Amino acid sequence: MIGTLARRKETRDRLDRQDRQERTRSVPAGPLALTLALALLAALTAAVSWGSTSIPAGEVWSVVGRRLSGEAARPGTDDLIVWQLRVPRALLAALVGAGLGLVGTAVQALVRNPLADPYLLGISNGASLGAVAAIVLGLGAGGTLALGLSGAAFVGALATFALVWAVARRGGGFAPLRLVLAGVAIGQFLSGFTSYLVLRAGDEQQTHSVLFWLMGSLSGANWELLAVPAVAVPAGWLCLQGRARGLNALLMGDETAAGLGVDVTRLRRELFTVTSVLTGVLVAVSGAIAFVALMVPHVCRLVVGGDHRRLLPVSALFGALLMVVVDIVCRTAMDTQELPVGVVTSLIGAPALLYLLDRRLGSGSR
């Protein structure tokens, strides 16, 4: 008993020393979070102002202020464009980006691999399969469409995560590389089955819409669709923030975490549930958006360090800012049509992934 307590104290002291060293090397999280919040506010304003019809920022805030104060809508196109079309889309982009930043941070801690994210682990593919099955089979039609898609996507995400984890843990032990390879293989299998379901859809217009949605799209944003992620993302952040110390301990390994008094099995079960719920909700409202959950936590970790008490809120803010900027590019890059969000994030994320792989392989070779 005395030896166990001594080991726990020694481990805590080592973690405290690492945290103090990390704080001296990293950027202060408070000022950085404030800067990101102000940049996000500016990006949201630009997202509502810019488009095929440009609206001055002053008029944007005038419309938003009138609506928030309960004043009736004024006649004219500006009020319609700002409040009914662009504000919900900009807020949805911010919520999706924040959610992806949180999910990526949690998954990377869960599997102790900075190259992991819901897309590489196949979780997004499983959520996509569930959502596409709901669309093709007509589940959640009518007013419960968002809830029906979110529920189906959550089931697909949770089942996929459990399957990938079971395959990676075969024979005992835990290997992060095996987990990533299992996720890629199972994700590709589920992607093929999703394509089969899409081809089985009898409606050509429905097939085209689903394929566009699978590449990531925020074009269907409205106030009704915004309701589910507006609840799920803040709730997910609160759940993960309350487990920040447990996430820090997981990075040290299961034995060390258990030595610090963390119930590793229970914590993993909770993280499975939270990440699957968030992934399902995000895929249901925006499709499968690649690489954001991979890039955001890694970039933020380089800036503020690996302490999840600081990393989680900064990742959420940076993810929100990134997605709002990406959506602006998607809407304004081409005159005739809108780019899928996944196209732009893949163009950014694929080189970033190659860079991360090169760094890890290079450090491993040394």
Automatic annotation (TrEMBL):
Residues 1-24 are annotated as: Disordered. Residues 7-24 have a biased composition (Basic and acidic residues). Its main location: membrane. Keywords: Cell membrane, Membrane, Transmembrane, Transmembrane helix, Transport. Pfam families: FecCD. It is found in: Cell membrane. It is a multi-pass membrane protein. Gene3D superfamilies: ABC transporter involved in vitamin B12 uptake, BtuC. The chain crosses the membrane at residues 27-50, 90-111, 118-139, 145-167, 179-199, 211-240, 271-296, 311-330, 339-357. PANTHER family: FERRIC ENTEROBACTIN TRANSPORT SYSTEM PERMEASE PROTEIN, PERMEASE OF ABC TRANSPORTER-RELATED. Belongs to the binding-protein-dependent transport system permease family. FecCD subfamily. This is Iron ABC transporter permease. It comes from Streptomyces shaanxiensis. The lineage of its organism: Bacteria, Bacillati, Actinomycetota, Actinomycetes, Kitasatosporales.
